[in-house]
# Entry
Amino acid sequence: MIVYRVGKTRYATDLTGEGARLNGGRWNHKLTACIYTSESRALAVLEYTVNINIEEIPRTLSITTFEIPDTDIQKLSIAKLPGNWKDFPAPFSTKAFGDLLLEAAVSPVIRVPSSIIPEEFNYLLNPAHPASRDFKIVEVKDFVYDVRIKLI
# Structure
């Protein structure tokens, strides 16, 4: 299965989840490693867009293409998520929920609905899972962010 991530070029090849470990995210608190990816390039750009201020967009971005196993994916339906999972900013409940899933390491990959478009999916890659060795970076390409997206 192919998934995508948009981020700073210097972290484009990171398979440790260090960025999420240092900063936290919707599905993890700081100190819990995770690699956030999306099912399409467009969703990866959209997710990046809602999580960054226009003033903070770096000049050097990349879009990383990962190949991950398409088996042993823990698929979560909306009914299984905390009731406030779409709130902004991301609530404590989703971070705690994700921490438990990542720490339990039941699966190397967790599929969650996008809080922007719930019919599309993000994939949380768990670098702490033994099967994370099967995560492969297929391609890293420079990505020029079109700021018109933020101006709409």
